[in-house]
User: Fold this.
Amino acid sequence: MPHSHHSHSGQFCPGHAQNSLEEIVLEAVEKKMSVLAFTEHMPREDEDRYPEEVHSTGIIGNALANESAYIAEALRLREEYGHQIGLLLGFESEWIRASSGILISRTLKAGPFDFFVGSVHHVHTIPIDYNAAMYRQARDLAGGSDESLFESYFDSQFDLLQEMKPPVIGHFDLIRLKSDLPNKDLAGFSGVWDRILRNLDVAASYGGILEINTASLRKGLKEPYPQATICKAFLERAGRFCLSDDSHCINHVSQSYDQILDFLEQVGIQTLCVLKHSDEALPSVCDDRFPRLRVENVSLVELKNHVFWNARDS
Assistant:
């Protein structure tokens, strides 16, 4: 029942994460988790690599080879450990410019993916969560204020949602992380809030799932992504949620989950979605692109009673 729909490994995300994919799986099994999704980053254009990626993965051709190796290893691990934990093959997409849709479509054809996480890490082609200097650079290009950058971020996210309809929407309000007031209620920015509600409308219209992403908590923020106000607005639209740790090493697996139950209760989320891989391809009620994807619901009561919490206390 405790599950994560967003994870990375140092094996296929070198310089950006740590530990092998198998070590991540074994840690999740040890912690009595029931579902883990593999979601390594999709290949990007060479110009869009983070500094450490330039040295570790080289040109785009190497990134494509890395992707192929990732798919093969993920499928091997599902064969070996699938009887102990549900394992999904996914990827985390990027939306950097209008042509990003072409790269996402290419990746979708690269392997038997169960789903993907749709994320925005760049605004005006500049990373907004990498460090403070890059955040300020993006902010200057957006007009010089956090509010103007937030508006640009949610405009980019709108394009991603409309064009690619990601089954899971990654760290919806990641743009808060490096801002001057990362814990500020985004409803206080009228132009930003209008864009957020617009994006939530789009997500709800096609059945997109917002992940409750606990990475923000380990990075010092007071709430997960997305913040409570956004979650409540999505609930008003009958929106669905899933749980993710966005782990980048074994120490991140299920980190801060002990804080999430209270948050879910306070927001009013009584049911979470759990994504699962089916060995049999059937007509999909979720997304025709992913015939082996199944989405189940788990109540907050069931989540609380899972053996996972006992394993954490022992």
